[in-house]
Structure formats: structure tokens, C-alpha cells
Amino acid sequence: MPWRLNTSPYYVLVSELMLQQTQVDRVVPKFLAFIKRFPDEKSLAEAELGDVLSLWSGLGYNRRAKFLHQAAKKIMEEYEGVFPETEEALRSLSGVGPGTAGAIMAYAFNQPVVFIETNVRTVYFHHFFQDKMDVRDAELVPLIQQTMDKAHVREFYWALMDYGVWLKKEGLGRISQSRHYKKQTPLRGSVREVRGKIIKTLTAKQVAVSVLREEIDGDERFEPALDGLVRDGLVTRSGEQVYLTK
Question: Which amino acids are annotated catalytic?
Fold first, then answer.
């Protein structure tokens, strides 16, 4: 995992947003391509959103690319190019919630913060909540605080991630025990699937709406998907022409 070889906050931010709802094996090649094209906050902030979306295409949940682009702009414009180092400041960046802020504090700055995500839950459920359902994250916090290796926070969380993955592969994952668990809806047959097809098509060209609909074999999901992309600021519609937002 390249973000473990270089733990700069920018690398961690990019990897954490890519890893939201996307598996590691799909993220690694995209991460390497993204970092090659946008090696730092400055290059990303100066890029056009359409270029960022083109490179992101294939990962899904394309709003994450917009959030990352906005975060880079804020770092350059409001923080004068200095990556914020507090949880409060980090959470002011687009797309950065408590979990992502905690991950940056732990992985980039080696700070003994508590953050909770799927693999963390998996480990603590396995050892402390085998017979309990509807477990709140708040119940995990004191356990993580007591078991954390505060001298090696970064390595501690890496170990939790790897251990959680192993438990799930062994059929020992119990993520459904979490009160916060929401099963991801299938991609096939969803509006999200059509959104991805629209973005992928528009990475190559600007086209008319009618042509776009025909090229992606649009069905009744086409208009909601396109309208949603326009509303999210990812796609621009000018008359009958559509293109990735610049």
C-alpha cells in the first residue's frame, strides 16, 4: 500500500477518500496514477475539476473527487499551503468527517486519537462483543483507548486494519452487530451505475444529451442520474450539450 510507504498528510488524505466504500486492490492503481498526476496539494488545487474526475473515473462515488479537489483548494487558499494538523481544522476540509480526520491524525501525525471504521469495529466486536447486537461506536472508544499502543499509533492502526481484513476473510466478521452499519446497495441496476457511465463517457468528450443517452444505453435512470450529477456540480449542462465541469 503506497500510502504506508509515504505517510505525508496529502497521501493519507487521498488514500482515505479513495478507500471510502472501495476495496484496496481497486484503489492502489488509481492512487498511484492520481499521485503521479497530482503529486501534492498545489498541483491538485490548480487542476480543473474535469481533469480530476477523468482520472477518478472507475472508482465510483465521484463526489469524493470533487471533495478532494475542494479540500486541496482550501489548503492552498485558506491555510496558505500548510496542511492543517488539528482534528477541528481537518474537519473543515470537504469530505473529511471524524473518521477521516482521525485517520490523518494517526497515520500522518502519529497522534493517539481514536477513530473508528469497519475493520476497527470488526476486531473489537470479535474480542469484546461476540454476543451483543446494536453496538454503538461510543462503546468501543474506551476499549480502543485502553489497548492503543500510544508510542506507535500509526503501526497500531495498520495492524487493526490488517487483522480486521483477516477476520472477515475467515468468516469471523460481525459488522452487522454495529448500530451504525448500513448495507451498501448493489451497483447493478442503480442510478449510481448510470452516474458512473455518464462520467466515464464524458471523460473523453463533450456530447449532446441525446447522444449521451444512446451511448450509455440510458433507461429510466438516465435523467435522475444526469440531474444528480449536474446538481452535485460534477457535470455541466449547457442547452443540449453536457460536459464534465471545468
Answer: 16
